[in-house]
Amino acid sequence: MSLELGSAVATLTIDRPAKRNAMSYAMWAALPDLLGQVEADDATRALVVRGAEHFSAGADIGEFVSLRGDADSARRYSAAVHDGVRSIAGLGKPTVAAVTGFCVGGGCEIALACDIRIAAEDARFGITPAKLGIVYDHTSTKQLVDVVGPAWASQILFSAELLDAATALRIGLVNELHPDRDVVARATELAATIASRAQLSVRGSKTIIARIRDGRYEEDDEVRAWYEASVTSADYAEGVRAFLDKRTPRF
C-alpha cells in the first residue's frame, strides 16, 4: 500500500495487482499507522481510498493456512483486520472510497468504513464469510446494516453472492456510479470539494453522524461544544462575511 500526503486531499492506494489487491496480514497491520499519519498531517483535510485496477478482492485467503491455522492465530488475524478497518472508520477527517473492479470481503469492509463510496459502473460487491465458515465481525456487520438496512445485510451475508454496481447503488451501498476511467477523478473532486468547506462544520457533522449511528441521539455537552465552537469560530466569521460580500469563502 502507498500513502500520498502533502495536499488537502490525501490518497491511500491498495496496490497488489497480482492478487487483485487482496489484503495480506501485513497490509491490515499497516493500516493504523498509515491512518495515523493522515490524522496527524495538518495539510490533509480529506482522504481518498482507492485500489490499483481493482479496489480489493478481500483478505488473502492463501495466508489462512499459515496465519489462521488455529484458533489463537485466527483471533490475532481477526484483531489485525478489525484494528485496520476501525482506523479508517475512526479517522477524524472525511473519507471517500473510489471503488473499481472487485470490492469483496475485506475490500468491502474497507469501503464501508469510508464515509462515501464512488463506484465504477462495472464494479462488483460482496461479503463472503459464509463461503469460509467465518462469522462476520460485529462492528463491520453494524456498518453494513447502517448503510443498506437489515434485509439487504441479511441477503448479502447469508448468500455470499456478488452484487452488480446497479444493485449496489439501488440499495444505498454506494453513493454514485461513473465509468471506470472517471471514478478516481470524481472521488478526488468530491474530496477536494469537502476539503474546501468549513472544516469545523465538516468535522462537527462527521462527529454527530457517528453519534447517531451509535444510537446516541441526545444533545449533550459534546454536541453543544460543537455548536458553541461554530458560532465563535473564524470559519463562521469568514462564511458570513463571504456571503455578504458575494464571494467564495476561504476556509
Describe this entry's structure for a reader.
51% of the residues lie in helices and 14% in strands. The radius of gyration is 19 Å and the shape is globular. The longest helix has 19 residues, at 71-89. A six-stranded mixed beta sheet has the order 1-2-3-4-6-9, with helices on both faces. Strands 5-7-8 form a three-stranded mixed beta sheet. With 251 residues, the chain is α/β, with parallel strands linked by helices. It folds into two domains: 2-194, 2-enoyl-CoA Hydratase, Chain A, domain 1 (Alpha-Beta Complex), CATH 3.90.226; 198-245. It contains eleven helices and nine strands.
How does the major sheet shape up? 6 strands, mixed
CATH architecture heading of the largest domain: Alpha-Beta Complex
Tally of helical runs: 11
Percent strand equals: 5-15%
Output the radius of gyration.
19 Å
SSE class:
alpha/beta
Query: What's the CATH superfamily of the largest domain, by name?
Result: 2-enoyl-CoA Hydratase, Chain A, domain 1
Report the average pLDDT across residues: 95
| CATH top level label of the largest domain | Alpha Beta
User: How would you sum up the global shape?
Assistant: globular
Q: What order do the strands of the largest sheet run in, or round the barrel if closed?
A: 1-2-3-4-6-9
State the domain count.
2
Helix/strand order = EEHEHHEEHEEHHEHEHHHH
The CATH topology of the largest domain is: 2-enoyl-CoA Hydratase, Chain A, domain 1
Give the number of DSSP strands: 9
Segments where pLDDT lies below 50 for 5+ residues? none
What percent of residues adopt helix (DSSP H or I)? 40-55%
Distance between the first and last residues' Cα? 31 Å
